[in-house]
Amino acid sequence: MKASVIGTDSFQSLHVELSPGERFYSEAGKMVRCSSGVDIEVTLQKKGGGFMGALKRLLSSDSFFYSRYTAQGTGTSEVVIAPTMMGNVRVLELKGDETWITSGGSYLASGPEITSEAKWQGLGAGLLSGESLMFVHNRGIGFLAVEAFGTIHEVDVNGEFVVDTGHLVAFESSLSFTVGKVGGSWIKSFFSGEGFVMNFKGTGKLLMQSHNGSSFGGLLGPLLPKRRS
Question: Which residues are 109's β-sheet partners?
C-alpha cells in the first residue's frame, strides 16, 4: 500500500495504491475516483470502532460512517480521496510508538492497522475552545492522512506554543494543552473576534491550518439564499 499527496497548492487530494487484498478506510463521502476492481463498503466499524465509537465521532465533528476500500482482482488498484474544503493534505507514517490526535473534521483516511478513537477532551475545554467535545486519537502502524482548510504548517514544539482554536489540525499526544483567552477578560476575548487559544506544553509536533473554517462559514452563511420550505 502506498499513500501519497497529489495536486498543487491548496487543491490537494490523497492518492492510495493498493495491491490485491489490501484495504484502507476514509471518512464517508470523500471518494473522488477509484479503479473498477475496488470494493467499497460503508461501515460503522474500523479497528477499535463500533456503534459507540461512531457516536463519539459525531461529537468530535467527524463522520458517523467510514468508507472501506478493498482491492480485488490481480493488479494494482487506486483510490483518490479529497477533502471537503480547499486545502492541503498531509500523510503521516505512524510506527506504533506514537499517537496523533486530530481535531474535529481533520481526519481524512488511514491504513487498516490504525486505531481511531474519539476521546473526551473535557466539557470546559470543548465549550470554551469552540471546538468539538472530543478529539480523535489515532495510533498503530501505517499511514494517517489529515486534511486542512488552506496550507498546513508543521511546528516542532519544545516548551510552550499557542494556537488559535480554529487553526488546529493535529498534534502528538506528548503535548498537553489548556484553553485560554487571548488577553484581557474572557468576555472581551470572545467578542473581540479573536476567540480562544490552546496553550500547548511539552515536546512534539503540531500541525496547523492557515485558514479558519468556522470563520469562513460564518462569513459565507449570511450571503447564501434562504432555503425554501
Answer: 26, 145
